[in-house]
Backbone:
């Protein structure tokens, strides 16, 4: 096989393209022959860069004798390094694997480099800076240059490389040229894919893609997320108690079907299956093999089976009283109550020095937010996949948002500690709701301690006596509000309609409650919120469809009676008032 064919094999292996599809466009009759100019044009489309000598060698090697090129034989020779024909006759035969030592697929980092050790050390320093910058801001070297590389050849011009390299603002143009010159090819093009592999730490044998890079970053950021890390059976039981209380799952429902004779014991395999089903609910936990084995040994019966009823009695504290009695037998008994901190982990507890340091960082951020009256929630919500519902963003997004919204010169270690403080172990995302609640006193994102209805909350429900008392209090506020308005109207000769009619564009006599309160507040600035609510309830039009609207003309008529007790004077101007 000639050197030119090997170069073509290396090129198409690097770009993962099928060269025969390009030749077929010039051969509508499928004769297997095209002109030399068409043959060379197809090689250019594939991205194969050959010297003039190699081009002439290919044209002579596959010449058909009539001035055309046998591209079909050429394609077979090229594909011979990757596949075998007639595999249906020998299906057990494995196709060959291209030898990377014979192609230009030799690792980009091994093919590119400086002979000068000082320049090579400088490059490594610059690579680490680019790697840190991309990790902090969620960038990728490959995605930065894909706009210039429409056919995925993996190369760009030096000018394009210098223009779009994702780098910090303080990096000098000389440093960018150092990186570009290190990956400069013979055709004066920069191999940005090789630099991307070096930055992301992707070897030549590993798949090249964003999914692989993202998976690698997530494994670095949150190792072992979503798994209970308890070692002993007691620790696992405590975690399961919290999980079953949170998900409202009774594990006995998943295990009693295996106990046909009601002997309270099942096999170890049946116990594992039932426990797996009970933990598979949304918000459940994942147990390792060692933790499941610890539970099996803890509740193993003398006959070798597992006493599942004893296990369920210990973890079903959300449904039992803590005694031998069941809630079915004693429905009025009290069950153990848990606070939000026991069920929902909004933040993590760090080690001693790290916890002290992160508290200082949060105090500095809180002071900065208070001084500048910053509202952080809108920016964080835009990065939330469900517009604020998931309450989490990725660690890279959190770092970027801290830089954009705060503008504080935080150290990298401080940012990492804040991320570790609010990272959810199950998802690997940072709980920005809890972060904003801790650094912004005016935020309404503070979590509520109450999780479920209990007897105390039910006892606080409004009764008929409470409703009657509120009605009497509201009537007292209404009488006081009307008295205040009457005094204001008489003293200053005010017309209530002048404050309200501008809100009624269609002259229907109806306005919203907010507009009504605005107009009344303009009439009497000292009117309290209780007085406004009483007036709103008194003049709400009960015949109108929701939402509630206010009959402002009735209110204006009641106020105008103080100044104009006689109506329609424009029709009878000689009429005397009372």
Residues:
């Amino acid at each position: 096989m000639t050197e030119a064919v090997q170069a073509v094999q290396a090129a198409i292996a690097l770009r993962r393209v099928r060269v025969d599809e390009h030749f077929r466009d010039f051969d509508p009759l499928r004769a297997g022959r095209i002109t030399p100019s068409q043959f060379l044009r197809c090689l250019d489309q594939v991205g194969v860069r050959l010297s003039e000598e190699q081009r002439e060698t290919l044209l002579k090697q596959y010449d058909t004798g009539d001035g055309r090129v046998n591209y079909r034989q050429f394609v077979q020779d090229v594909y011979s390094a990757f596949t075998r024909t007639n595999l249906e006759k020998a299906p057990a035969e494995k196709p060959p694997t291209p030898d990377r030592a014979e192609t230009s697929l030799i690792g980009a980092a091994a093919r590119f480099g400086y002979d000068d050790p000082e320049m090579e050390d400088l490059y490594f320093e610059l690579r680490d800076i680019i790697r840190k910058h991309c990790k902090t801001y969620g960038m990728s070297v490959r995605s930065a240059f894909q706009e210039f590389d429409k056919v995925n050849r993996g190369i760009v011009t030096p000018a394009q490389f210098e223009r779009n390299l994702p780098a910090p603002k303080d990096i000098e143009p000389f440093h960018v040229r150092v990186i570009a010159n290190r990956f400069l090819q013979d055709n004066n093009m920069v191999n940005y894919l090789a630099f991307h592999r070096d930055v992301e730490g992707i070897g030549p044998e590993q798949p090249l893609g964003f999914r692989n890079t993202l998976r690698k970053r997530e494994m670095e950021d949150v190792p072992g997320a979503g798994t209970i890390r308890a070692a002993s059976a007691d620790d696992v039981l405590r975690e399961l108690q919290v999980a079953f209380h949170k998900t409202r799952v009774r594990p006995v429902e998943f295990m009693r079907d295996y106990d046909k004779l009601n002997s309270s014991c099942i096999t170890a395999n049946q116990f594992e299956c039932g426990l797996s089903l009970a933990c598979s609910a949304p918000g459940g936990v994942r147990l390792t093999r060692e933790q499941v084995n610890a539970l099996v040994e803890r509740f193993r019966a003398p006959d070798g089976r597992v006493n599942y009823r004893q296990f369920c009695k210990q973890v079903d504290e959300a449904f039992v009283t803590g005694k031998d009695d069941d809630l079915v037998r004693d429905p009025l008994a009290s069950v153990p109550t848990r606070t939000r901190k026991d069920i929902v982990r909004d933040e993590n507890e760090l080690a001693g020095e790290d916890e002290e340091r992160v508290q200082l960082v949060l105090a500095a951020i809180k002071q900065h937010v208070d001084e500048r009256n910053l509202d952080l929630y809108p920016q964080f919500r835009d990065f939330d996949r469900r517009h604020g519902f998931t309450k989490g963003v990725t660690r890279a997004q959190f770092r970027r948002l801290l830089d954009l919204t705060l503008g504080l010169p935080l150290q990298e270690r401080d940012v990492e500690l804040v991320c570790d403080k609010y990272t959810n172990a199950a998802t690997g995302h940072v709980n920005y709701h809890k972060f904003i609640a801790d650094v912004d006193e005016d935020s309404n994102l503070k979590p509520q301690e109450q999780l479920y209805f209990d007897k105390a909350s039910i006892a606080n429900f409004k009764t008929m006596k409470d409703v009657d008392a509120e009605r009497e209090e509201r009537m007292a506020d209404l009488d006081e509000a009307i008295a205040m308005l009457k005094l204001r109207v008489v003293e200053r000769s005010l017309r209530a309609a002048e404050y309200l009619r501008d809100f009624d564009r269609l002259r229907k006599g109806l306005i919203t409650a907010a507009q009504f309160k605005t107009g009344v507040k303009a009439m009497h600035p000292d009117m309290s919120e209780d007085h406004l609510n009483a007036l709103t309830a008194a003049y709400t039009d009960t015949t109108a469809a929701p939402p509630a609207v206010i009959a402002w003309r009735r209110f204006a008529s009641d106020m105008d009676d103080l100044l104009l007790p006689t109506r329609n004077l424009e029709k009878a101007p000689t009429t005397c008032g009372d």
